[in-house]
Backbone:
């Protein structure tokens, strides 16, 4: 459903880039509190005795962790806005079908309005290859020392996040292809562009 969008890193970028150790990469990404990604997202849900439920959209996600602000847009392939989220200091406003809904529990709001399971709090870490909580199990590639998977019990459910197709953005190697699984649900994300807006 989603093909990788990553381009090969240019030789000049590779030459300029200094390899970061896992600890340096983690420290840099934790220090970076403002970022944005653009790409595609797909939800594939297995329903017993029925055909898999599939939904896909373009995704644009801007996060400013210091200001506790975020903007998340999901748009259909026809350019129709499926979901628009504005969050300020834990207060969330969701626009669906030209109607506004407000609340403090974002993942619940998204699910109740769209039927989509999107663990937004954890995803802001997982998409950067960072554990969300201390109990998360992070596995690194033995050659590149980049994350290849995270296993996480989130809301008492086991999630498995797998990473591939790394590309350099703003001096840091970021994954551009993800599979995020829990029982009966597969979320695929292909990132076209990462923007690390502050360091």
Residues:
């Amino acid at each position: 459903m989603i093909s990788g969008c990553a381009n090969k890193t240019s030789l000049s970028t590779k030459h300029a880039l200094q390899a970061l150790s896992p600890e340096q990469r983690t420290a840099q990404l934790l220090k970076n509190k403002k970022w944005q990604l653009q790409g595609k997202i797909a939800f594939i849900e297995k329903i017993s005795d029925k055909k898999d439920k599939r939904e896909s959209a373009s995704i644009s996600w801007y996060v400013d962790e210091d200001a506790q602000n975020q903007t998340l847009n999901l748009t259909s392939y026809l350019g129709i806005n499926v979901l628009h989220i504005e969050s300020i200091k834990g207060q969330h406003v969701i626009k669906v079908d030209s109607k506004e809904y407000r609340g403090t529990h974002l993942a619940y709001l998204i699910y109740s309005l769209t039927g989509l399971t999107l663990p937004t709090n954890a995803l802001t870490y997982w998409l950067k290859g960072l554990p969300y909580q201390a109990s998360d199990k992070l596995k690194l590639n033995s050659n590149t020392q980049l994350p290849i998977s995270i296993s996480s019990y989130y809301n008492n459910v086991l999630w498995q996040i797998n990473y591939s197709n790394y590309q350099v953005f703003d001096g840091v190697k970021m994954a551009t292809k993800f599979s995020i699984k829990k029982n009966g649900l597969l979320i695929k994300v292909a990132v076209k562009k990462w923007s690390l807006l502050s360091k």
